[in-house]
Specification:
Layout: H1 2-25, E1 42-47, H2 53-67, H3 71-74, E2 75-79, E3 84-96, E4 107-122, E5 125-135, H4 157-181
Antiparallel strand pairs: 1-5, 2-3, 3-4, 4-5
Helix pairs in contact: 2-4
C-alpha cells in the first residue's frame, strides 16, 4: 500500500515536471511592436517589379478567397479604385492539457485570436499590415498583455500563445507573398 502511494506521488511529480518543462521550453518570440501605436504589428512593403497595381490588387483579393475559410466574413472592404483590401479574421490557439498523464501531453483549445489586416497595392509593390490582435474574451483583451510576464494575471502559457500567433502570422505572410508572386493557372477551354 505504501509503495502504491509512493508510485502515485512519483508519477504525479514526473507528470507535473514534464508539463512545466514543455512550457519552459517555449521561448517568447520577439514580437514586432509598432513604435507609434505600441501594438503588435506585422508590416512590410514587398517589391514586385514589373507588376502593375491592378494585378497586385487582384492577386491579393484572389488570395483572400483561398486563404480564409469564410472570405465574406474576412474581407470587410475591397476598394478596387484605391487598391486596398481590409478585413479581420481569427485563428485557434491551444495549450497543454492540465494534469494530463499522457505523453506527449495533449493540447486543448485555449480560445481564438482575432486580428485585423490591410493590403495596399501600387505599381511594382504591395504593402501589408496585420495588427489589432486580441484574445477573444468577454471584454477586449489585447495580446500585448501576454508579453508582460511581471503582471499578476500572467500565465506561463502566454509564451506558447505568442509563439503560436507568431507562427500563424508568418505562415499567412508567406502564403500571401507566394500567391501574389505566382501567376494563376489558366484553365484551358478546349473541351
Amino acid at each position: 500500500m505504501k509503495a502504491t502511494i509512493l508510485n502515485i506521488i512519483f508519477f504525479f511529480l514526473i507528470g507535473t515536471a514534464t508539463i512545466n518543462a514543455q512550457q519552459a521550453a517555449v521561448q517568447t518570440p520577439k514580437m514586432p511592436i509598432d513604435e507609434v501605436t505600441n501594438l503588435i504589428t506585422y508590416t512590410d512593403v514587398v517589391e514586385e517589379p514589373g507588376m502593375n497595381k491592378d494585378t497586385l490588387y487582384n492577386r491579393a483579393l484572389r488570395w483572400t478567397k483561398v486563404f480564409f475559410k469564410n472570405p465574406i466574413d474576412a474581407v470587410k472592404k475591397a476598394d478596387a479604385e484605391a487598391r486596398v483590401i481590409e478585413g479581420g479574421y481569427r485563428f485557434k490557439i491551444s495549450r497543454p492539457e492540465p494534469n494530463s498523464k499522457k505523453q506527449p501531453v495533449p493540447m486543448v483549445d485555449a480560445g481564438l485570436v482575432n486580428y485585423k489586416y490591410k493590403i495596399f497595392s501600387k505599381d511594382g509593390k504591395f504593402k501589408y499590415e496585420i495588427t489589432n490582435f486580441s484574445w477573444q474574451q468577454n471584454s477586449y483583451y489585447p495580446l500585448e498583455r501576454w508579453m508582460d510576464n511581471k503582471a499578476t494575471s500572467y500565465d506561463p502559457n502566454f509564451a506558447l500563445y505568442l509563439k503560436q500567433t507568431d507562427d500563424f502570422i508568418k505562415d499567412l505572410i508567406k502564403s500571401l507573398e507566394k500567391a501574389i508572386e505566382t501567376d494563376p493557372v489558366k484553365k484551358k477551354d478546349d473541351w
